[in-house]
Here is the input.
Amino acid sequence: MDTLTSTTTQSGPFFSYTIRCSQRGRSAIFFPQRQQISLIEGTSKYQVELGFSPSRLLELMVRNADVVVTRNEILEYAWPERVVTQSSLNQAISRLRELLGDEQNKEIIQTIPRRGYVFNSSFLTAAVELSETGDDCGDTPTVIENNTHLHSKWDALPEHWQRPVRLFLVTITALMLSTLLWRVDWDLLLQPNLVIDTQQENNQRLIYTAPNLSSLESLQNDLSKIRERLVLFSSRPGTLVFNRTQDYYDITCIHQGVTKFITVYRTQLATVNDQQLRECLQ
Here is the structure.
């Protein structure tokens, strides 16, 4: 099980890698900093959360395309400071091959017996350095088959919820335009029972989003110590946004037009150190 903490900020360059998949008609756009891969098939596009270790594994191989990456190099980069078995590596390789449609031919990620693995550069069609904001208009968090997906979710909202949710979405959209807040979970925002709790503590505006009250209380309890430290370390007014996506907690720090993120695996909340929190607030 992946139990590592990943910190993602907008202070450095972002990269995307376009991969031609073995499966006919499928291509993939890999975002290492986001630990995500967007799969495109025809007019459909959907996003997959890779998690820390599989993402680091793919990143290492892509950046060393056509070079044999040894098992030890992979383990040190994708599972740092951990003792893992060969089965963990095999599972990660198998999952990546499945996503890339390469599980049968094994042409993209090639196994070199007793040495390691090679990423076949002939399947790497583009490597693009994005802006510092990580802006990429082509990346969306939902399947785009037609325009009915979001409309159906909006129509499912109770009428008395539509106005406050619309106001909240307008606020978030404004933040996106000024700070390119690409990690907002839009599927979460459009859930009919969405719960949003806004608080003010010292000079920080705190926003919690959760699918229901029970999840909101759990989110607030789980992140209470981190919230206290963030508020303590903050020296200027700003906004802190907290939510949870599957097994990861997302903490967004917005200060004077700069947005930074900390993504923490659920079992690793206690390992977030003061330096990470201070960097998020900078």
Summary: The radius of gyration is 20 Å. The chain is about 35% helix and 30% strand. Residues 148-281 form one domain.
